[in-house]
Write a structure and sequence with these properties.
Layout (H helix, E strand, L loop, with lengths): L1 H30 L13 H5 L27 H10 L2 H6 L17 H6 L26 E7 L4 H14 L5 E8 L6 H4 L7 E5 L5 H12 L4 E5 L3 E3 L4 H10 L3 E10 L6 E2 L5 E5 L5 E5 L2 H6 L7 E2 L8 E4 H6 L13 H11 L3 E13 L12 H16 L4 H7 L12 H10 L4 H7 L13 E7 L2 E6 L8 E6 L6 H4 L3 E3 L5 E3 L2 E5 L8 E5 L9 E4 L2 E4 L4 E7 L8 E7 L10 E4 L1
Parallel strand pairs: 1-2, 1-4, 2-3, 6-12
Antiparallel strand pairs: 4-11, 5-12, 6-7, 8-9, 10-12, 13-14, 13-16, 13-24, 14-15, 16-17, 17-18, 18-19, 20-21, 21-22, 22-23
């Protein structure tokens, strides 16, 4: 008996140990924090330089804990169904419906009829890379305050934005949805939506513009992070978790989704390229740009975040305390435009970073024009906002901004003292650092000189002439005027280092590259060969066509019959002889 026990003891002991070992291993696997399973970016050189390694542990905040809002209790699934039932969607939409015979593009610059035909809870294709579905995010992400500002948004698109959020976001991640109605004509556009779960409505008593409206929303937000969205969006599957995850790891990151395209005619949801980032030229004009071949080669994992020099501005997540600490926004910026450069430069230069997260996708209706009026005109507002950005953040490099936008020089831009002080208090890097470390691809022009003055043919001057209720002004030869005022403004031109001939935001351009083609005024577009000119002797040569700026007389040879064209260069022709008299 004793021998048997002794013989069995060894195997029993072995089995016992294997069981204990197995138990221990499985327990460890279950207990492992979710962050360790997250597919982290391959440590390329750039990534190693940026921020701490991904974990679910938040980095220490710049702001004391008591300043941070504590998340509130969220309603249960039962409450949530009741809330939905209280909202009469059909009644909300029908009150403002497109009517047969009206132009469906008139009010919103997109196809209102099509937008209304599409259900508010439609399914959109999952446009993420298939590896995104494998990622695991922190389970204890804090709820966010979603802030949507709008001015006379179509009810159908506004509602679809909100419903897509409620349908495709885990409820516990939404602290609240704050709609900021920037003085729309009908307060009910916003007010009726507070019957939806989590939705709050703030209304401005006068038009404030995007920046001040967003700050108003941010100031009442109770979430630890702020999620800014546009009012004509549809969020895609699991859009929020990857954004909140990145901010939780490091609160200095400001993160954006990839912006898919909702077609403005058909409202089709279209996947956009994911390997893009935000770029700009010296006129502070935003564009999307491809990653360079080297950057693409370094990306081993398509789910890796993309560092971006600037954000498009409409959609992003930022830590609330970090947003406040960094000085929110420049409240003297009006309506829309340019604020994205200001916040982008500020975040980078004051020790934060900007990222596009490929696994987060949000659709947006891209329009060709603004459907609403700017009280001071579209260009004036854009120039004021970008000029404030250049003056506060670009140091001596602002000369290239002025060289690209010569007419911004004499524009009023308000007082910037508080923003300059903010930059000093935050002890931010200078713009040279930004160019070297964040956007080395932006080339610094060799020349920033501006030649400004009138373009004369004998005693006549090249002048723009506004047309009644039409887009771009005409080009004419007019008697030269010296005194100040609208008339003389129409005769001032600037030759820039980009080879453009500019007046305000418009450039001398040609319709075609053939002899006799009319010369017109068109919105300046960097690198557009139709807009590039060079002065050679007394000629002004169009570079792409090698034709010369000329005038043709039609009919009665009066001023009204003069047309500005391009023709084969001939040195003897007086109609091709131009003098530039600087002012
Ligand atoms: Mn938009």
């Amino acid at each position: 008996m004793r021998r048997l026990t002794r013989r069995l003891a060894l195997p029993i002991f072995g089995v016992f140990w294997i069981t204990v070992l197995l138990f221990w291993v499985t327990q460890r696997k279950l207990e492992a924090p979710p962050g360790t399973e997250v597919q982290t970016p391959k440590p390329s050189v750039q990534w190693e330089l940026q921020g701490p390694s991904p974990t679910c542990q938040p980095a220490a905040s710049a702001v004391p804990g008591w300043l941070r809002a504590s998340p509130r209790k969220t309603p249960s699934d039962g409450d949530w169904d009741d809330l939905w039932d209280q909202f009469d969607e059909r009644r909300y939409l029908n009150a403002k419906k497109w009517r047969v015979g009206d132009d469906p593009y008139k009010l919103h610059a997109f196809n209102q009829r099509e937008s209304e035909r599409i259900p508010s809870n439609r399914v959109v294709p999952d446009t993420r890379h298939n590896r995104c579905a494998l990622l695991v995010y922190c389970k204890d992400l804090p709820p966010t305050s979603i802030i949507i500002t709008f001015h006379n948004e179509a009810r159908s698109t506004l509602l679809r934005t909100v419903r897509s959020i409620l349908n495709r976001t885990p409820m516990h991640l939404i602290q609240e949805i704050i709609l900021v109605d920037d003085f729309s004509s009908d307060p009910d556009d916003c007010n009726q939506l507070i019957k939806l779960p989590k939705v709050k409505c703030l209304r401005n008593n006068e038009r404030q513009g995007l920046v001040r409206s967003r700050i108003r929303g941010a100031d009442i937000a109770q979430g630890a992070t702020l999620t800014f969205l546009d009012s004509h969006c549809e969020v895609n599957k699991d859009w929020l978790q990857p954004l909140l995850h990145r901010v939780k790891e490091d609160y200095t990151r400001v993160v954006c989704p990839v912006i898919d395209i909702i077609n403005l005619d058909t409202f089709n949801y279209i996947e956009s390229a994911s390997e893009l980032r935000g770029g700009f030229d010296w006129s502070l004009h935003f564009h999307w740009e491809q990653l360079s071949p080297e950057q693409k080669a370094r990306r081993l994992d398509p789910t890796e975040p993309i560092r971006t020099p600037v954000i498009a501005g409409g959609l992003f997540v930022i830590d609330k305390a970090w947003f406040d600490y960094l000085g929110k926004y420049d409240t003297d910026m009006d309506i829309w435009g340019g604020e994205n450069f200001e916040i982008s430069f500020r975040v980078w230069m004051c020790r934060g970073s900007l990222e596009i997260i490929p696994c987060s996708r949000v659709g947006h209706v891209f329009r060709k024009k603004h459907p609403y009026a700017f009280p001071n005109g579209n260009t004036n507002t854009y120039i004021k906002n970008t000029k404030r950005t250049a003056e506060v953040w670009m140091d001596d490099y602002k000369q290239y901004y002025y060289a690209a936008r010569p007419f911004a020089l004499e524009r009023p831009f308000g007082n910037i003292r508080s923003r300059v002080m903010l930059r000093a208090n935050l002890q931010c890097q200078d713009f040279k650092w930004y160019l070297e470390n964040v956007y080395p691809e932006l080339r610094i022009p060799k020349d920033s000189s501006i030649l400004k003055g009138s373009i004369r043919q004998r005693h006549k001057c090249l002048a723009s002439q506004k047309q009644n209720n039409q887009g771009s002004p005409n080009l004419k030869l007019r008697p030269c005027v010296k005194f100040k005022g609208e008339e003389s403004k129409a005769q001032v031109w600037a030759f820039t280092y980009t080879q453009q001939i500019i007046q305000e935001e418009l450039c001398l351009s040609v319709v075609t590259l053939f002899p006799g083609a009319p010369v017109i005024l068109a919105v300046c577009k960097n690198g557009d060969e139709k807009q590039q000119w060079t002065k050679s002797g007394s000629h002004i040569e169009h570079m792409a066509s090698h034709l010369c700026l000329d005038t043709d007389m039609f009919g009665d040879s009066t001023e009204a019959g003069t047309e500005v064209v391009i023709n084969p260069c001939e040195s003897s022709l007086m109609s091709q002889h131009w003098d530039i008299v600087s002012s």
